Automatic annotation (TrEMBL):
The keyword Transport applies. This is Putative ABC transport system ATP-binding protein. Residues 5-226 form the ABC transporter domain. It comes from Lentzea waywayandensis. It comes from the Bacteria. Pfam families: ABC_tran. Keywords: ATP-binding, Nucleotide-binding, Transport.
Length: 226
């Protein structure tokens, strides 16, 4: 069985000459379908750059990234966008919700971009909100929700396209202990249902939810804990 994510000698450089920043320096990584991995590293280690490339939000300077066996380096911006929308769900530390729209409308947003009809959008968004336990908050705006509830809306939005892979960048970074526990419980259940989860964190307790932890130092994998 081929890996869902395969990264070979990945390099990412920002800028040129003496001021160039080498965010990734020949990183290799393989993630099998259904795995749950945590990526850890100090600030500036390259872990967020890696996640952005895995999510097709950025492209590598050199090296190869295969997503489900597809070489993403051969895709243009539009093709990458389509690939991202079909295969990947994102959860960010800062929630990234649209402030003046309801939880339901926020969750529907990826389906609007995908051209899904309104009735089907509504049905799928309601199902995603129910999955994260927020079926009673559908018409609340972000400022009417707690931080934990906002992150659960963000997870529902990530799930509404039925992605095979969920990428989470410090998803508990802005949450209290109880809200963090709820969010991690949702990610655990998503993985148990067969989804591949890649999680960035700087907290050992959060990383302990994963099957293995990949440590990134100076743009390279420095070690793997199982």
């Amino acid at each position: 069985m081929s890996p869902v994510i395969e990264v070979r000698d990945l390099r990412k450089t920002y800028g040129n000459g003496d001021t160039a920043v080498h965010a990734l320096r020949g990183l290799d990584l393989i993630v099998q379908k259904g795995e749950y991995i945590a990526i850890m590293g100090a600030s500036g280690s390259g872990k967020s750059t890696l996640l952005n490339i895995l999510g097709c939000l950025d492209i590598a300077t050199s090296g190869q990234y295969l997503l489900d066996g597809i070489d993403t380096g051969e895709f243009d911006e539009e093709q990458l966008s389509l690939l991202r929308n079909r295969k990947i769900g994102f959860v960010f530390q800062s929630f990234n919700l649209v402030p003046r729209t309801t939880a339901l409308a926020n969750v529907e947003l990826p389906l609007v971009y995908a051209g899904v009809r309104r009735a089907q959008r509504r049905e799928r968004a309601l199902a995603a909100l129910e999955l994260v336990g927020l079926q009673d908050r559908t018409h609340h705006r972000p400022n009417e929700l707690s931080g934990g509830q906002q992150q659960r809306v963000a997870i529902a939005r990530a799930l509404v396209t039925s992605p095979a892979i969920v990428l989470a960048d410090e998803p508990t970074g802005n949450l209290d202990t109880e809200s963090s526990r709820e969010v991690l419980g949702i990610l655990d259940r998503l993985n148990a249902s067969g989804r591949t989860v890649v999680l960035i964190t700087h907290e050992d307790e959060v990383a302990s939810h994963a099957m293995r932890t990949v440590r990134v130092v100076d743009g390279k994998v420095a070690g793997v804990l199982v």
